[in-house]
Design goal:
This protein is mainly beta. Helices cover about 5% and strands about 55% of the residues.
Length: about 150
């Protein structure tokens, strides 16, 4: 690994907005509802061969209750997203569990995706799901981080 990579990893990455921050309340608004992200032009990002989708999460979860997240990347050839098809998916997975007395928690869920077969445009679709039926809340904010470009950003 070259010294420049260790001192300036940012020179080798490109970030892009993936979707609006989504707030949800257990058994209420936004809970267990699919969120379709923004269409991103991979070619404008230097034709990356891989990405990580980082889901920043802030949640308040009751004891033993959970926050699960299902997510996928879609791809297509049209900038309006009208021809998107599923490319890579992760089934619903528990990403946070409340502790005794209920807890405020923060964290990052990372979804690594090989983009070598992806078309020009991609987007994320994610579904957050709180298991409680009461006052649990969460906010999920995804962002793309691209790497492996033919040319540096």
């Amino acid at each position: 690994m070259g010294m420049s990579l260790r001192k300036n990893i940012g020179a080798y990455l490109h970030a892009a907005y993936a979707a609006v921050a989504t707030a949800l309340t257990a058994a209420g608004t936004g809970d267990n509802t699919a969120v379709t992200g923004s269409v991103v032009d991979r070619f404008a990002a230097g034709s990356p061969l891989s990405c990580s989708v980082l889901y920043a999460i802030a949640a308040t979860i009751a004891n033993t209750k959970t926050l699960s997240l299902a997510y996928k990347i879609q791809h297509g050839t049209k900038s309006d997203g009208s021809d998107m098809a599923d490319y890579a998916a992760v089934a619903s997975t528990v990403v946070m569990t409340g502790n005794a007395g209920g807890t405020a928690q923060t964290g990052i869920v990372k979804h690594d995706v090989d983009l070598t077969g992806a078309l020009q445009y991609i987007r994320v679709v994610f579904t957050p799901d709180l298991s409680a039926t009461g006052v649990d809340t969460a906010t999920v904010s995804p962002v793309f981080v691209f790497g492996g470009m033919a040319e540096l950003p």
